Each structure stands twice: as structure tokens, then as C-alpha cells.
Amino acid sequence: MGEDVKALGGADPTLLALYEVAVSLSNVEELHLAAEKIVTVARDLLNANTSTLCWLDSRTGKLRTLADTSPEMRVPAWRWPGQGAVGMAFESGQPVVVSDYQSWPHALKLAAEHAPASALAMPLKVRGRTLGGLAVATLVRRDFGPRDLQLMQLLAGLAAPTLELALMFRQLRGQRRARPRAS
Fold it and tell me: How far apart are CA 16 and CA 4, in angstroms?
């Protein structure tokens, strides 16, 4: 823990975790590292079993799964906006809270033993544009409350610009690599 965190003293552990996320994400240039950090923190902060982060691929119009904490669940690598909790949060631009995922009409069809019981998803927005979605899920039915929504909104607010910046770094590196070949 850095000196800044120690100076916060007896602050709420959740706020400290969000602070640490903000500091650690502030210098992440690699898209996959940022995405992995975000899903891990989301899962842990919300005491969920899994977390998934998707980002819009502007070429295909689909959402690409950038990171997921549960590879055994076989979350699809791609999905259309409107599919699953992440897709619905992306499409609507609003948080999505699903207490009974199994009977929810927009649920992804996953293997029964890995299907979530409840989910909470948040759109990832940058300058008013929705560019992705972040979701957590539980294997036991749960009613997500106002504090859960606040935590996800804070995390989404940190995650979206970080991911956009990491994507820009990736594109710039690709352009730099392509430039010597062109000359």
C-alpha cells in the first residue's frame, strides 16, 4: 500500500479498494491488464462469484469479452448488444439488475451448472457514449441493493476511461509498427 493510502487511515475498506484501483489503473497501458484488474476488483468488491467485461468492437457492432473471472462458465467471446446482462446494460445505457437470471428473457444460454442465479451489470460510458459493459454474477440468488449499484457505478466510472485510453495506446503501437513497413 502506498503512502497516500496509509494517510487515509481508518477509511472504509471499500473506499480504500476503489482508491487503490484508481491509482493502479492510472498507469495501465495494456488493455488486457486493465480489463483483468477491473473484473477481479468488481467480483471481489461485490462479493460475487464471477465478473465479465465487454467492449464494443466498432467494426462488427458486437461486444467483445475482454476479461472474465470464470473461464469454466464458457462466456461467449462475442455477443450482440441486448444479449445477457452486459448486453442489456450496453444497449440501454442503464444499470441492469436481475434477481432471477434463470427466468430472465435476455439471459445467455449457459451450461446449467454454471449459469448465474443473479446479476448486476453497468454500462461503461466515456463522454456520454456507451462503449461497453461490466457485470457481476452470483451462483446463489441475491437481491443487489443501492450500495451494490453505487459501487458498480464508481467502478464503471473508473474503468471506462481507462479502457478507452488503453485501447488508444494499443492502436498507436499498431500504427507505429505499421509505419516502418510502409516506408
Answer: 10
Q: Which domains can be identified in the chain, with CATH numbers?
A: 3-168 (3.30.450.40)
The span from the CA of 173 to the CA of 171, in Å, is 5
CA 183/CA 179 separation, integer angstroms = 7
Q: Is 100 helix (H, G, I), strand (E, B) or coil?
A: coil
Residue 59 corresponds to which cell in the numbers above?
A: 467494426
Look at residue 29 and give its three-state secondary structure.
coil
Contact in structure between 149 and 42 (CB atoms under 8 Å): no
In angstroms, the CA 171 to CA 175 distance is 6
Single pTM value for the model: 0.82
DSSP reduced 3-state for 39: helix
Which residues, including other chains, have CB under 8 Å from residue 62's CB and lie 6 or more apart?
A: 56, 78, 79, 80, 81
Cβ atoms of 34 and 71 within 8 Å: the answer is: no
**pLDDT tens by residue, 6-43:** 555 566 777 777 777 676 666 666 778 888 889 999 99
Give phi and psi for 152, each to the nearest 5. Answer: -65, -40
Query: How many CB atoms within 10 Å of residue 83?
Result: 20
Q: Is the pLDDT of residue 131 over 70?
A: yes
